[in-house]
């Protein structure tokens, strides 16, 4: 990934992730719940990475690209935004892992990050639950045809516990109306596939105005999404 995107790897960020994973294993669960503002004991690791199939689920850790010191930098981030300063986790019924393009300035969570903290999330394919003609839900996997990888613009935030012992970055990818081939399968959203030549511009919002930022988000890579039933 570093080679493909001409990006540096943030060793300190990955070391922090390992420290968090080790701390989670050794910390008293009640102390951990209080630190992170959790109402119940987590069912799985709070800092879990991809599963054995390489799938990233909401609350999972994924490599994300940001702009630092005039370079693209890869950092691990949680795929579900935890707003800075929040005392508790946002309840799971609220989607804070996908940011709708038409809500970037309407929803409080995105408004504080749009034009300030931009990122890029590379991935190979994405999964969506849709209903078939009989009303049964099925998991469909979408993948760009003739492309080995895709990427979506993202927004990120940094959360730190009150005692300063726990801190991590988290992100949400930006979605928009789907192209015809995705809509035909019954899904109403699709990750924005940012044009590759616009990546650096997106990652440096301090050099953008809102009009130009939206133009970048509408200027997409030409692609057709093939699909299949997920195993």
Summarize this, please?
This protein is α/β, with parallel strands linked by helices.
Give the proportion of residues in helices. Answer: 10-25%
CATH topology: hypothetical protein yedk fold
Give the CA-CA distance, first to last residue.
25 Å
Overall CATH architecture: Alpha-Beta Complex
Strand residues, percent: 25-35%
What does the main sheet amount to?
Answer: 8 strands, mixed
Given as residue ranges, the uncertain stretches (5+ residues, pLDDT < 50) are none
Q: Give the rounded overall mean pLDDT.
A: 95
CATH level-4 homologous superfamily? SOS response associated peptidase-like
Task: Tell me about this structure.
By secondary structure, the chain is an alpha/beta fold. The chain is built from 6 helices and 11 strands. The chain has helices at 11-26, 29-36, 108-111, 180-183, 199-203, 210-218, and strands at 8-9, 61-68, 71-79, 98-100, 118-123, 126-131, 137-144, 150-160, 167-176, 190-191, 225-229. The strands form 2 sheets. Strands 1, 2, 3, 4, 5, 8, 9 and 10 form an 8-stranded mixed β-sheet that branches. A 3-stranded antiparallel β-sheet has the order 6-7-11, with no helix packed on it. Strand 8 and strand 9 form a beta hairpin. 26% of the residues are buried.
List its traits.
about 230 residues; alpha/beta; hypothetical protein yedk fold; eight-stranded mixed beta sheet; three-stranded antiparallel beta sheet; 6 helices; 11 strands; about 20% helix; about 30% strand
Set out the fold topology.
Layout lengths: L7 E2 L1 H16 L2 H8 L24 E8 L2 E9 L18 E3 L7 H4 L6 E6 L2 E6 L5 E8 L5 E11 L6 E10 L3 H4 L6 E2 L7 H5 L6 H9 L6 E5 L2
Parallel strand pairs: 1-3, 3-9, 4-9
Antiparallel strand pairs: 2-3, 5-8, 6-7, 7-11, 8-9, 9-10
